[in-house]
Specification:
Blueprint lengths: L1 E6 L6 H15 L3 E6 L14 E4 L9 H21 L4 E5 L1 H10 L7 E4 L11 H10 L5 E4 L2 H11 L3 E3 L21 E6 L8 H11 L6 E6 L5 H10 L6 E5 L5 H5 L3 E4 L8 H8 L4 E4 L5 H4 L6 E4 L4 H13 L1 H10 L3 H4 L2 H19 L1
Parallel strand pairs: 1-2, 1-4, 2-3, 4-5, 5-6, 6-7, 8-9, 8-11, 9-10, 11-12, 12-13
Helix pairs in contact: 2-3, 3-4, 6-7, 6-11
């Protein structure tokens, strides 16, 4: 089967990682896989040699509504040419803006399109234009995939029975990689994510500052980079936490850092199905997480492998962190249960769900 996957870029994000994993798996299974990106940057996660990666360009900043319309029109034209050149049996788009452009690009062609929603739409301000386009175009899709049943319920009025709930696959960690250098001694609380407002790392640093004096042997490690780094560095300095809070920047593989840590924390205001949380559990880390929309409540089993805290509840977060940082026995018990996340969301199950979609495309075309 000829599969064409479309995404804006192949940076270091969770969606990009999942697309790369799926593309590589499908190529190994003998499908002809093409990945199209608007960005001309190299992939952060390596694509298999059998996967064709075409950079079609068209990325530019738009200062006015008119220039934005023109830029998106140019992207759609380039996208149509590139997709048709790949002669696909199925096109799969990732994330709202890409999904809309793909559906526009393929109007009148008869090429089936699967749109993948990667976050919680109720808490994402997409703007009126994108919301209208989504409502008009999504019903034209062959199918829609989303990460949780809660997200599926949002799209049910648009696509009904053509919605498939497919979580992100969780892989067992690769043990034996290079150990991280110069990590602080003692206990380590790990957080991972792009340094931007939605991750609420400023809230995390504030809460850690409140409880840090009770846990002098604990350090907070934050892996990731982004626009909020200067603000966070200033905050850490102001709170006199330079020896306790460590901004480690972007790393190619978080597994060695997770395996060298004792606990994980997630403070996002919204998620889709957070890979970082899944990877932490897979590495045997008990997790404390806000029960934000969506994902954490579908992943963490409260009291079994972590603690769920009401979204945005700073006191609740401080209390949950304090509890686990203080209790080696509870932490150890949760750590034993955490790797079960690999069984619950294993790659074989995810690929099987996708096989149902691929098979229905084949049947529809026969």
């Amino acid at each position: 089967m000829r599969l064409t996957l479309v995404i804006n870029d192949l940076g270091a994000g969770g969606t990009e990682r999942v697309l790369t994993l799926l593309a590589n798996c499908w190529a190994r299974r003998g499908h002809a896989v093409t990945v199209l990106t608007h960005s001309r940057d190299d992939p952060f996660f390596p694509l298999a040699p059998a996967v064709q990666h075409r950079r079609i360009g068209g990325v530019s900043a738009s200062r006015t509504a008119l220039s934005a319309i023109w830029a998106n029109g140019t992207r759609v034209k380039r996208l149509r040419r590139a997709i048709l050149h790949s002669s696909p049996d199925l096109v799969i788009g990732f994330a709202l803006s890409t999904n809309v452009r793909v559906l526009l690009a393929l109007l009148g062609t008869g090429v089936p399109v699967v749109v993948c929603e990667r976050t919680e739409p109720r808490h994402l301000n997409v703007g009126l234009a994108w919301a209208v386009l989504r409502r008009l175009l999504y019903p034209r899709a062959f199918a829609l995939t989303c990460l949780t049943p809660n997200v599926a319920s949002f799209f049910e009025p648009l696509l009904g029975g053509r919605i498939h709930v497919i979580p992100n696959p969780v892989l067992a960690p690769c043990v034996g990689g290079d150990a991280p250098c110069s990590l602080p001694p003692g206990r380590r609380l790990m957080a991972v994510g792009r340094l931007r407002a939605v991750k609420r790392f400023d809230l995390l640093v504030e809460v850690f500052a409140r409880i840090s004096s009770r846990h002098p042997d604990w350090h907070l490690l934050i892996v990731g980079d982004g626009p909020m780094r200067p603000q966070l560095e200033s905050m850490v300095a102001r709170l006199h936490l330079r020896d306790r809070v460590h901004l480690l920047g972007l790393v190619p593989d978080t597994s060695p850092f997770l395996l060298a840590s004792d606990m994980f924390v997630l403070t996002s205001s919204r998620e889709g199905f957070p890979n970082a949380l899944c990877e932490a559990l897979a590495c045997g880390l008990p997790a404390v997480t806000f029960d934000c929309p969506s994902g954490p409540g579908d992943i963490v089993r409260d009291g079994v492998d972590g603690l769920l805290v009401a979204d945005g509840d700073r006191e609740g977060l401080a209390s949950a962190l304090d509890r686990l940082m203080s209790d080696d026995l509870v932490r150890s018990r949760m750590a034993e249960q955490a790797p079960d996340v690999v069984r619950r969301f294993n790659l074989a199950r995810v690929l099987s769900s996708w096989d149902e979609i691929l098979s229905s495309v084949t049947k529809g075309g026969s």
